[in-house]
Amino acid sequence: MAESTTDPGQWPLWEVFTQPEAGAPHEHAGSVHAPDAEIALQNARDVYTRRGEAVSIWVVPSAAITASSPSDAGPFFEPGNDTPYRHPQFYKVPRGVRVF
Amino acid sequence: MALIAKVQDEAGHGLYIYCGTETLGVDRAELIDQLLAGKAKYSSIFNYPTLSWADIGVIGWLVDGAAIVNQTMLAKASYGPYARAMLRICKEENFHKRQGYEICATLAKGTPEQKAMVQDAVNRWWWPSLMMFGPSDKDSPNSAELTRWGVKRKGNDDLRQRFVDLTVPQAQAIGITLPDPELRFNEATGAGTSGRSTGTSFTRCWPATAPATASGSRPATGPRRGCLGAGSRRGLRGQAASGLGGCLTVGRSDGQVVLSAVLPLALSRRIHG
């Protein structure tokens, strides 16, 4: 994700994930700067959940995230695109069977 | 408490946008340094003085209202982190606008002095609010580029017209007059090119001379209000001359340039909280 925080005096960057309700997945909301995880959580709460938008927050050091490279997306995801037999449309249904 | 909450929101909006810029590799501290050094651009709307309590209401109603119109469009921008920030900002700005409008409505049905106070504030803020949408499209140096990249999806003039369409009935509902003697319902465009969701369209075409009502209570200090720069005026007049029905033209004789920031106002506005 962010490759900034080049300034040595700057607090590290944390990515913030919020869960809107129990059972829902945590989704990326944004980022905050904070000196440690505890304060990152508090900052994330103040910045991203002022109106009850979440029941749970994760904060992750941005530097800890390993991301796939957009420029390599083609070859990287190619294996998943090369298996048509994983899709139901790959299989033929005998003529006359209208509802399957 | 509500106003403190609004201030906190506005600071948060700056953080949302800074977060977006960081995904592009621009350091947050660097942007704050630019802001403090006076190098960063921001919407000139923030340079106008606030003279009375009514200004607080009118700023919420008109300035935040104009920002919502702009940012609702930007929430569909092509860059995800920016668009998602805009979405969140729009939700929160709605509280600001409603709060401001309630203040205005309350004052408007108060004592004659209170009503005069809110009318005076509307007179001073109406034109600057319209200018938040930037110069006419053909004079906007960045619009074409931003449209090409899918950051902007509607033109300045369309958005400004939408704001006028939305605001006129709100002003009528609380008995406030917008300081524009030539503002009138335009049936032709209401039924035609400007058939927007409201089904109404208010057209305003005024000459390059100042309407007397808009130049009323200018303070001795601070930026002068209600004026567009000569360049913009020229272009806006050009638009009127080109015969576009329902055009919104802005012109003032006092010619001082206040409209300095022309790139997406919401962007610069939000960068600076």
If you compute it from the alpha carbons, what radius of gyration of chain B comes out, rounded to the nearest whole angstrom?
A: 18 Å
Shape of chain A: elongated
Task: Note the beta-strand portion of chain A.
Answer: 15-25%
Number of E-type strands of chain A: 3
Number of helices of chain B: 10
End-to-end distance of chain B? 19 Å
Overall pLDDT level of chain B: 73
Protein architecture, described:
The complex is a heterodimer of chains A (100) and B (273). By secondary structure, chain A is α+β, with helices and mostly antiparallel strands. Chain A is built from 2 helices and 3 strands; from the N terminus they run E-E-H-E-H. Chain A has helices spanning 37-48, 73-81, and strands spanning 13-19, 27-33, 56-61. Chain A is elongated. The N and C termini of chain A lie far apart (44 Å). Chain B has 273 residues and is an all-alpha fold. Helices cover 55% and strands 1% of the residues of chain B. Chain B has 10 helices and 2 strands. The longest helix of chain B is centred in the middle third of the chain and has 29 residues, at 80-108. Chain B starts with a helix and ends with a helix. The interface between A and B is medium-sized, with 18 and 20 residues.
Give the secondary structure arrangement, pairings included.
The complex is a heterodimer of chains A (100) and B (273).
Chain A: E1 13-19, E2 27-33, H1 37-48, E3 56-61, H2 73-81
Antiparallel strand pairs in A: 1-2, 1-3
Chain B: H1 2-22, H2 28-36, H3 53-74, H4 80-108, H5 112-131, H6 143-148, H7 156-173, E1 184-185, H8 187-191, E2 202-203, H9 230-241, H10 265-271
Antiparallel strand pairs in B: 1-2
Could you give a quick summary of the protein structure above?
Chain A has 2 helices and 3 strands, in the order E-E-H-E-H. With 100 residues, chain A is an alpha+beta fold.
